[in-house]
Amino acid sequence: MQRISGILQLVLLMGLELGLEGALPPPCNSQIYCTGELLRQVQMAKLYQDDKHFVDMPMTKTPDQVLSDFDELLKSSGGNISRDHLETFVNEHFKDPGQEMEIWIPEDWKASPKFLEKIKDSRLRAWAEDLHNLWKKLGRKIKPEVLDKPDQYSLIYAAHPFIVPGGRFIEFYYWDSYWVMQGLLLSEMSNTVKSMLQNFLDMVEVYGHIPNGGRVYYLQRSQPPLLTRMMDRYLAHTNDLNFLGENIAILELEMDFWMNERAVNISHKGENYVLNRYYVPYGGPRPESYSKDEELAELLPQDARESLWSELKAGAESGWDFSSRWFGESNYLLDIKTSHRVPVDLNAILCQAEELLASFYTKLGNLNMAQNYLQAQARRKAAMKALLWNETLGSWFDFNLENGQQNHAFYPSNLSPLWAGCFSDPDTVRKNIKYLEDNKILSYKHGIPSSLQISGQQWDFPNAWAPLQDLVVKGLAVSDSAQAREAAFQLAQNWIQTNFDIYQKNKAMYEKYDISIESGKPGGGGEYKVQEGFGWTNGVALEFLDSYGDRLTSGSGPMPLSTSGLLLALLLLGLLC
Length: 577
Fold this sequence. Notes:
577 residues; Glycosyltransferase; three-stranded antiparallel β-sheet; 21 helices
């Protein structure tokens, strides 16, 4: 698709309220896994506690045969299929999820990676070994029959093995995989990382973008575009410039997707800027959350439902599904307006990607392309400074396209430009530290909350998520400011302590944590129960253990005594003598 004009983009933006007539056909046309009466009947009957269960089930027959048999059942029942008959039909025509994959133990896994030696606290070192061992439990390989009969599976075939997040997430996921890869590289598993990278590069070649996850029903949306950063991290550990040279055009292709399909022109104070947003121009309920989306839409007039479903999909594309970040004034999911927000973190990620692509092209000797991307980054930085930066509050904020104002609520993503390295001058860092202090973020003992809003959604208070800890900690850690670096360490210590304490109790890592109670606990809220595993939590924990292993403590063992405490101890020893 050609780069669309500002007028057309405005029409598309308004089209979310006018309906989606004329929209492109959805990337997934499956009448079983993505749309159609069979999907609707099964999901609304709630045969399974989790809607994702059904759309992950492989078929035992061809799709045509399944649909033909379903039509016969529909006719014989007069259009009203009983729940029992529907359950019998599904059991006869589908298999349980997960059978299309097999457990895969990475060939490059080894027992004692070097980073473990950095960890001084013996209990933390033993825990790090456990996390390193988890890679063997989270490895998956897709069976050949998925390639042979792809239309009988919702799983997208990937030629190379990969690491999954865990729990209900039994396929690959896009942005999760960045932090998984970070952990794998510390575990000295660069071959596994290369395999995962190759899968993602293949997805871009085939679909033009990387889907949210490895299922056909995720094809309508992507996730935060971290592919270029993944490549950079892989190169930092391997210097595999041949691999970069073979795939640089595919990295560009993904950037083109975001600039052609997710860019928006903004006129502000007499200047025109181009930034990016999350935007999915397809209606219909999300197949993996069908009944929830359908029931939520029933609260709206019929002509407003497609817009709601499109916005829910855009929220899922953001990775923050769901959060008060995307809500309108009502602060309720029914009023979600994701595509009307210009997110700080998305633009920070793309700002860094432009700089990395310039660096890649420089390494490959193409200085013209390098200059093009540096110019693109300069334009983005100017737009971010004009629209997202707030000098008075000392931070960046999401921009509301409807009213032309910033959302001044706290989210860890507000600091993502530091993490991306796009803005790192000492004055900006100092203001960001003050911003954290003003919002009392440094006073939370168990992790940085996803927001300070209580909405019942999983990306709001009191939940804390591993990638958001990384966004803040890494951004502060690379600063020249001693205060910022010390704040980064303390935040890392808090997060490690929370993960470690709960692991000792439950022998499990979780996708998110509730930091509202004294010791923390597994998180909650949202559409499903908290999941164990857990890929990105493991990766971030290993990163912090590697960065601060000589200073982090498990909170056990003898603590340093104060002078008065030491005198008291000596006195007691004297009395005992």
